[in-house]
Amino acid sequence: MTRYKKWLIGSLVISAVSIALVTCLTFNSDTVEALRKIRLEYILAAALLHIISYPVWGLRTRALCKALGYRIGVLKVTEIVISSTFLAGITPSSAGGEFLRVHSLNRSGIPLGKATAIVVGERLLDAIFIFSCLPFAFYILGDILSDYKFDAAFLTANFLVFVLLVFFIYGVWKPEKVKYVTRRLTGRFAPFFGKKTDAAVSHLMEQIDREIDHFHDSVRVFFSEGKKGLLWGIACTFIFWTVDFSLLILILMGLSQTPSITTVLAAQVLLAVIMVIPATPGASGVAELGAASIFSIFVDSSILGITVLAWRALTYHMNLLIGGLISLKVIKDMNLIKKLIGDSAEPQHSA
After folding, report:
1. What is the DSSP letter of 281?
2. DSSP E strands, 8-106
3. Are 287 and 271 in contact (CB under 8 A)?
4. Dihedral pair phi/psi, residue 71, rounded to 5°
């Protein structure tokens, strides 16, 4: 818990400093006038739209679960994805959120390997959507891509995603190779985690081999009898990103701006790629400074800081708040269940 507190504090501090820096550098008399004329109904609509994105995400996860033959209620799966946003927001490249979703799906009765396939499948659908939109973003923002400020970050993000995709495809194609590598790594590192005996290490390797088989079988199912669920997942992915990208349009309308919708969407596609770089917890600093640089194409300098603040508050700080509250509820429910199980396990004494 201490480590999570450090990550949370670190991500919030970096985010606050970055937003303060952008705001201070762009604040002037026009900023004050814009704040006086702000139309809160659009900001509230943007917040509502972000809340709607949670059940859309939940429906996608549910569709992928159903494709593998597992049924989970909409409320339950939505609770899982919301709770994961908190840990995603305080870990680099949102990695903690993925681990938590895998764990939560596993606790809901889905084997670990299949739960991993579902979560990895979600990430792949996101990556395919974003990278499919890149030609559109290149065309709209062709001038800015020649700016040296974006070249390094953009190329690094593309390279990392490409490497991960290659490893994933190779792992699906050659599961036995993955098993061999994991056996070697497990045998080397297991003693550091308490697996001292040969029998314990052997049992652990058998578990890992079983979960790799589950993962491989799940990927096969997605492209065979689970195609319908996969198609629903693709549809939900499109709706999710469309909803999330629409927040900035509403924010700008609330600040009395009339943005070009295509430019706003293209800018956010580019920003999504840059934010893949696992530099800081929750991409704090990278997101704010990257947004300030990219949004400056179509946002007046006097309201640039306000725009970045409102956008980050809805897409990041709201996730921390709502995700944190749901996480506390999940932990409380788990403790209650453990207590009930413990009470029921106690011997009953007759009078």
Report:
1. B
2. none
3. yes
4. -105, 125
pLDDT in tens, 199-222: 665 655 666 666 566 566 666 667
CA angle 151, 157, 162 (to 5 degrees): 120
Task: Using the CB atoms, write b or e for 224-253: b if 16+ within 10 Å.
Answer: eebeebbebbeebbebbbebbbbbbbbbbb
Query: What's the pLDDT score for residue 26?
Result: 87
Three-class SS of residue 350? Answer: coil
Q: Where are the domains of the chain?
A: 40-272+318-333
Q: Which of these, 61, 139, 68, lies nearest to 102 by C-alpha position?
A: 61
Provide the residue type at 49 as one letter. Answer: L
Rounded to an integer, what distance in angstroms lies between the CA atom of residue 341 and that of residue 90? 32
Q: To 10 degrees, what angle do helices 40-67 and 227-254 make?
A: 170
Amino acid at 172: V
The tokens for 34 are 């814009």
Residue at 338: amino acid letter: K
Q: How many CA atoms lie within 13 A of 46 on its CB side?
A: 24
- The residue whose two tokens read 């659009």 is 42
> Where does the pLDDT of residue 149 fall: very low under 50, low under 70, confident under 90, or very high at 90 and above?
low
